[in-house]
Design brief:
This protein has a five-stranded antiparallel sheet with strand order 1-8-3-6-9, with no helix packed on it. It has a four-stranded antiparallel sheet with strand order 2-7-4-5, with no helix packed on it. The chain starts with a strand and ends in an 8-residue tail after the last helix. The radius of gyration is 13 Å and the shape is globular. With 105 residues, the chain is mostly beta strands. It has a single domain (2-97), classed as Jelly Rolls (Sandwich). It has one helix spanning 88-97, and strands at 2-5, 10-14, 19-26, 29-33, 36-40, 44-48, 54-58, 62-69, 82-85.
């Protein structure tokens, strides 16, 4: 899913049944979770495992992306929220998958 906003984006505390990998293509994010807070530049992303409470705020104009991972597929992924560097491969995979539309794998 691609997200583009010309103003600050604020998402209050919430949780998902699925895991979520998200980041900024342009802009800066502050992310708060029950286990910590991070300032995340466009070169990095956040992994949020299923059922973890989190919220975010962008600082100024924002373009970003989000990938949801079914809970059953999260077994081999980190059990705690974390920040990681976005590789070129991940950036291209997310860009390609964002064009698949609803109902895609």
């Amino acid at each position: 899913m691609r997200i583009v906003q010309s103003q600050e984006r604020v998402t209050g505390a919430h949780r998902h049944a699925s895991g979520q990998l998200f980041g900024a293509a342009r802009g800066l994010l502050s992310v708060a979770a029950d286990s910590g807070q991070w300032v995340v530049p466009a070169s990095h992303c956040v992994w949020m495992p299923p059922h973890h409470i989190h919220g975010l705020r962008s600082h100024g104009p924002f373009a970003g992306w989000s990938v949801y991972v079914d809970e059953a597929s999260c077994g081999g992924l980190p059990a705690a929220p974390c920040v990681m560097r976005v590789s070129g491969l991940l950036r291209e995979a997310v860009a390609r998958a964002s064009g698949w539309g609803d109902g895609a794998p």
